[in-house]
Amino acid sequence: MKRNETRSVRAGSIFIGGAHRVAVQSMCATKTQNVDATVEQAEKIREAGGDLVRIAVDSPKDVVALAEIRRQTKANLVVDLQENYRLAATVAPHVDKFRYNPGHLYHHEKEKPVAEKVRFLADVARENGCAIRVGVNCGSVDPEMKEKHPDDDVAAMVASAIEHCALLDDLKFDQYVVSLKDSHPRKVIEGNTRFAAARRDVPLHLGVTEAGIPPEGIIKTRVAFEQLLPRGIGDTLRVSLTLPNPRKHEEITVGKLILEDIAAGRFRSVPVFDDHTLNVISCPSCSRVENEKFVELAEAVKEMTAYAKPHAITIAVMGCRVNGPGETDDADLGLWCGPTHVNLKKQKAALGAFTYDDILPKLRAELDALIAARS
Ligand code: SF4
Predict the structure, then answer these.
(1) In this predicted model, what pLDDT tens digit does every residue of 205-214 receive, in sequence order?
(2) CATH code for residues 9-263
(3) Phi, psi angles (nearest 5°) of residue 108
(4) Alpha helices, DSSP H only, in the chain?
(5) Intrachain domains 9-263 and 279-374 with the same fold
């Protein structure tokens, strides 16, 4: 496959970018503090061909577990810092790469300039020989960027990524990759294309976030990857699928299959994803999932809402409070899971929290009302 001439970034035993093959990665969905289960899942992902295994860390107790996981697995480990960027200092000695989200970084310790927070992260990465991923999500772009690009959320996402590249460049830190993700393949294609035109040197991590349950989740991902990889865009990838825990390693199998097909010229998806039918998106789950019923709920939502297929409605199902409230804002109807209740939203408006038994009828009533209002 033709590849953009990006620079090489080392993450443990592998390199991302340059002439290196496209690395495939996945993320553990086990509770990080359940060391045995997380080691088992990390090994399963590695044995399936996973080059990198991501783990969520949100607390000092998670860091203690991470140190033990590091001792027990040969996998190249990545941590997703999400809200708590200061944990980087204790996380970095145990991992090969960490990811921060510029949107979340903006909100944390608001009084501090973003450049100062980025300097802290770059210093930590440098001291520990870690790579960094600047992981921008269209749904959580920092508000200042949104204000600058009120009518073009892809432009806001790209501008945020470019701003953070400049901050890291100023610090002479070059061991970073960038991701620009959304649940819609079109925005992933546009965002990565625009970014690659501006920064051809920066390795890109591709992914359609919250792609959902197979086969739709795989189709959405293929639509984006088949448009980007043949044009040389993409150095590592993740296929984000909503799968039961014992099947998480299938993300690797699917990613490798898509790469093989593209390399062999076998294209299976249509270039434009159909915007005129029901779109159920769901997160791939991770250690932050607040109730184990999440995957079951996502599957039940997909099944129950099938009758609404002819309508251009987006329903988002998210597993936790970290990303749930924000990532459901753009959906027509959104559900995010708490430990005992599921929160239901109509775009940004909260409609209440319902038990796992009551949520489906409530969702059905809201969906019927939405269809009626649009008819
Ligand atoms: S929404 Fe929450 S549970 Fe789902 S993948 Fe994102 S952080 Fe994990």
Answers:
(1) 999 999 999 9
(2) 3.20.20.20
(3) -85, 135
(4) 35-47, 60-72, 88-91, 102-107, 114-128, 143-148, 153-170, 185-198, 216-228, 250-263, 294-304, 324-327, 359-374
(5) no
pLDDT in tens, 239-269: 999 999 999 999 999 999 999 999 999 887 6
The residue whose CA has the least distance to atom 2 of ligand 1 is 320
* Domain definitions of the chain by residue range: 9-263, 279-374
Residue whose CA lies nearest to ligand 1 atom number 6: 323
Confidence tier at 9 by pLDDT (50, 70, 90): very high
pTM of the model: 0.93
Kindly tell me the burial class for residue 372, based on how many C-beta atoms sit within 10 Å of its own C-beta (0-12, 13-18, 19 or more): exposed
Of 138, 25, 120, 42, nearest to 81 by C-alpha is: 120
| CA 294 to ligand 1: nearest atom | 3
pLDDT the model gives residue 2? 82
Number of Cβ atoms within 10 Å of the Cβ of 349: 9
Our CA angle for 195, 192, 1, nearest 5°, is 110
Q: Which two tokens stand for residue 262?
A: 């593209």
User: What spacing in Å lies between the alpha carbon of 287 and ligand 1's midpoint?
Assistant: 8
Q: How far is the CA of 131 from the centre of ligand 1 (A)?
A: 22
Structure confidence at residue 274 as a pLDDT band (50, 70, 90): low
pLDDT digits (tens, 9 = 90+) for 136-158: 999 889 999 999 999 999 999 99
A 10 A CB-CB count for 18 gives 14
Q: Report the candidate in 82, 267, 174, 31 with the shortest Cα–Cα distance to residue 41.
A: 31
Give the CATH number of domain 279-374: 3.30.413.10
Q: Which residues line ligand 1 (CB under 6 A)?
A: 283-286, 288-289, 318-320, 322-324
Output the CA 231–ligand 1 centroid distance in Å: 30
Give me ligand 1 centre to Cα 321, in Å: 8
In the chain, the amino acid numbered 279 is N
First to last CA, the chain: 47
- C-alpha–C-alpha distance, residues 43 and 72, integer Å: 9
What's the pLDDT score for residue 185? 94
Q: Residue 110 above 90 pLDDT? A: no
For residues 275-289, one letter each, b for 16 or more C-beta atoms within 10 angstroms of the residue's C-beta and e for the rest, the string is: eeebbbbbbbbbbbb
Helix (H, G, I), strand (E, B) or coil at 218: helix
